[in-house]
Automatic annotation (TrEMBL):
It is a multi-pass membrane protein. It comes from Meloidogyne enterolobii. The lineage of its organism: Eukaryota, Metazoa, Ecdysozoa, Nematoda, Chromadorea. InterPro entries: Na/ntran_symport (IPR000175), SNS_sf (IPR037272). The keyword Metal-binding applies. This is Uncharacterized protein. Na(+) binds at residues 11, 43, 169, 173. GO terms for cellular component: plasma membrane. It holds the Pfam family SNF. The chain crosses the membrane at residues 6-28, 40-61, 157-178, 198-222, 228-251, 272-291, 318-340. One of its GO terms (biological process) is amino acid import across plasma membrane.
Amino acid sequence: MVRCCYTNFYSMGLGFGGLIAFASYNPVKNNCKRDVLKMSLANLLTSLYTAFVIFCVLGYMGRKNFNSCIEKDMSLILKVAPGLYKNMEEINGNITMEEFTSYMQFDFRDSKFSEIINHPSYKKCELGDIISEAAEGTGLAFVVFTEAISQFPFPPFWAILFFLMLMMLGLGSMFGTLEGVITSLNDAKMIKLSQPMLSLLICASSCLIGLVFTTQAGQYWVSMFDHFAGTYALMCVAFFEVVAVIYVYGCDNFVRDLQYMCDEQIGNFWKITWRFISPVIMFVIFVASIFKSFTKVPEYSAYDASTTHQHLEPYPTWALFIAFGLVVIAMAPVPFIWFVRKFRIWSVEADIPVASKCLGATASTTYMLRSEMSFNRILESANAAELRNIGKNGRNMGGMGSHIGGGSAPVSSKHKHQSHDFDYHQLPYNNQHHTWHSGNAPPKHKYAQSQMQKAKKNFFNFLFKNRGE
């Protein structure tokens, strides 16, 4: 069950950051709900098709290897009972594979060759174990499929196509993973490098780290990373992503953003799923995987050269410490960033002016410029003097000042004293929905509220006009 959930996370690319990075390049009005449904359906269909092909090949190769194992065990009759049969042809003529398999199921009791079970070369053949052993790790691609391809017509042609496909799959997987890292670093302006140089630096560093997988013990390192780094940490990061969006940013705000983008209402099914079902399921799976690790020591497949077979061995203590470090390093940024932001120790945005963040917005923050919510947040963060300066400077930038207080629009004497020096922060503000309530404003602020709406409209018109949008 736990493995199935992790496999779905891998196939969908959840928790890696790649989907969020790719989505940041979409238009503001992109229907992300439709994209999610299409992507999930495509993943389902491709998974079913892949499973159909893989299990057909596994079944065929498993049956073939099972028959080979039976023939190998049958040949031991010549060693434990040399007087019964002269050669394999005579054995095959007197004992069928089905009969020998039935003897094997009962450990050759009451048979003429009961000593086979004590022979050092004997291995009990189990079809399920043979298939499971072949499907584990890299054996599926580099052993089972290559052996199956060798029986195709024109094997070299199909082998070239198959290994080219594996290379493309590896590169395609890395595109999404690296994009999540590169886009985040570029948007945060943490590293002062161009995007090509940053990509080169990250790819080169990843290549150097990946050299450990090419050593003689590389298979064991791959098994460790696959078992620990891509399971526990992935589920934990995805869980905190849901909590951050739904319970920190706010489910109502998230739903309002989606309704603005998709131009349709979000049903209760999605709200209940985001609020309760998704976080509960991920939390239960994460706790179950941790509980399983503590109740049973994790094992890996070790190769035995004497028997030419793999068998399960528990991880040594030093390897478990390395695995624990991998999980902690992957999850550490979540509590670390929360701590430094909560106690105002360090902030990425501390030295970026408000205007710079708006005018220099990235593709992932374009929606902030278009939404009314973003203007209200600017009002909250900026003081009234800054807004009045925007209005005064707006005389030379398309006439914005005529609506903010620095223009020449006719104003009645009754409200003239309010048109220049009203305080935006005195208007009633709803922290939950990030909206200003003009209906609840006192009468003396009615005119200020209308002026703010006009300023808001011209503010966005000015921004989009100068950005060429």
